[in-house]
Amino acid sequence: MNPYLVPGLVVVILVTVGIGLYGLRFARTTSDFLVASRSVSPAWNAAAISGEYLSAASFLGVAGLVLRYGVDVLWYPVGFAAGYLALLLFVAAPLRRSGAFTLPDFCQVRLGSPLLCSLASVFVVFIGCLYLVPQLQGAGLTFTTVTGGSYAWGALLVGTVVTANVALGGMRAITFVQAFQYWLKLTALAVPVIFLALQWQSDGRPPVTPEAGTSFSVATTVVMEQDATVDGVPVEKGEQLSFDAGDPVPRVSTVDARFDADWLLPGGDGSLFATYSLILATFLGTMGLPHVLVRFYTNPDGASARRTTLVVLGLVGTFYLLPTLYGVLGRIYTPQLLMTGRTDAVVLLLPEAALGGGHLGRLLGALVTAGALAAFLSTSSGLLTSVAGVVFTDVLRAGRSGSIRDFRLATVLAAAVPVLLSLYVSNMDVSRVVGLAFAVAASSFCPLLVLGIWWRRLTDVGAIAGVVAGGGASMAAVLITVLGPPLDGWLADAVGQPAAWTVPLAFLVMVVGSLLTSRRVPADVGATMLRLHAPEALRL
Amino acid sequence: MAADDDPIQPSPAAGGTAGRTRVVLGEAAARRRPADRARADLAEQTPVGEALVRGLVRAQLALALRLALVVVTGLGALPLLFAVAPGVGGVKVFGVYLPWLLLGLLSFPFLIGVGWAYVRWAERNEQDFTALIRRPEQ
What we know:
The complex is a heterodimer of chains A (540) and B (138). Helix content of chain A is 71%, strand content 3%. By secondary structure, chain A is mainly α. Chain A has one domain (40-204, 216-538): Sodium/glucose cotransporter, CATH 1.20.1730.10. In chain A, a hairpin with a 2-residue loop joins strand 2 and strand 3 (233-235). The longest helix of chain A has 52 residues, at 151-202. The termini of chain A are far apart. The mean pLDDT of chain A is 84. Chain B has 138 residues and is mainly alpha-helical. Chain B has one domain. In chain B, strands 1-2 form a two-stranded antiparallel sheet. In chain B, strand 1 (92-93) and strand 2 form a beta hairpin. In chain B, helix 2 crosses helix 3 and helix 3 packs antiparallel against helix 6 (98-134). Chain B is elongated and about 65 Å long. Chain B starts with 16 loop residues before the first helix and ends with a helix. The model of chain B is unreliable at 1-19 and 21-35 (pLDDT under 50). Chains A and B meet through helix 5, helix 11, helix 13, helix 19 and helix 22 of A and helix 2, helix 3, helix 4 and helix 6 of B.
């Protein structure tokens, strides 16, 4: 095992807990815990939002997808970044001015319907769990891949560190922790990629898609993890296959991957419907993610919320330049992952595979692993804070006057379910589940926020109907995809990437429902609109 | 976008709404009341105050929708383009295939540029609104 690995991971955990404890010195009131006393500067806040947002799916998953499927999946990083533009254009400043802390709070401010608040709480918890389970799973799988330890310990370790940190430090500490983790993640991908590019240069710039097809660059032994057919020949689980440098990479029946022109050029076997569905889900889903929204209340005013979002767009956009390079270089240096199907591990394995097992390769390998750990820690902390915030304010009914002890109780409650789930459900596909969480958010909270902020005639009945129709349909699609049987044909696309029909459905039902119940438009809608849109400088 | 359904609001595409609102409402406010009443109009939800807020919301929404349209035509048309004209996907620029260059590299500065323009113009809309409230034109 890599000797730099354990010290690297221990340092990340110690620094995380250390900054959390340091933040604790400043966190004295409940307000400090929940919204960092609304005194965080845009630069800190933007780094924290980015740190929170770049999860296992971004750090490991995007590179793995590029390695496997090629140019078509570049829509994932583009969409993950573009989501912040949609958030900036339609939501950021008015949402901050609404003064609400959670999504259910926003429903209360805008429509004053307790039923809608409860419904929003259900969706926050559902989306939070849907997003939290794969983070913990990713942590467990990484732990297994790099240390050979058990999956359960990895998931439990990250779960415990995150729960303790959120419960002890709350939001204030988390802001500094998240900001640190953004820069750690960026460094962990940016520094190795420089050495990888130099190595590629000195290897004589081997082509990514050689004429003769993808081939091994060095002699490699692959241990099969499942029964499969390799280039038509049946092979049993556990069998070892050896390849020399220059041998072509065989096609394994159990692994779905693309080769040659399919990989290099757009349009492969993914349909246009699936591509547009993915675009819609990621562009519009970001604004509905509970851990993203909760951050906006830590800005001092609407204008700074806008500037913060722009900085986030810059930070996240910079980060997403890097995973693509890992995916492409992985095609040259770690083609065996196309046989085992563990493409998510490409970021972790690439430094040692390309630079060799010397000190440099191992140091950089430890650095990317530390970055991956930071990705799990920061996203899970943010998710847990927001889910705990909802449990605290809406389930425990503690309100703003609730004690810090109640918030800690809410945190432990909110963490227990996903941690237990992640121990029992270990074989769900990380990036796919995260994509589904975006689809649910895009078809429930996106219409609610956009129409609530810009359309005076939205009513509580219309909003509830829209969330139930769009959110319910996408939730059902998620449950079928994760638990149900495999589907074929157009049904597979419609259920596997539901956003293209659930998002328009949610908007349509919400608008029609509101128009039909136009007498229920809140009497104070004018005052609410003024509060959402008027600059704070007026001090009305 | 469903917000266009509001019959009280003319189409955001009419353009130049901020300038027109400013003159008409400024005059109306000045004629009927002392100049510093515009703030009271806002706070008390009078019809004048209502119209002022509607003007601001309309201007901000029109701005957001226009920039969203820029992104939809700039990025959203790409999958269709690659499907309709596969030849475009095979073009090489500086040794890199065009789709990789567009999606992997150039889309990010494009998004940031649109965001920067939005922040600038949205803040200008708000400054116009604040100026209108503080110093109604005579």
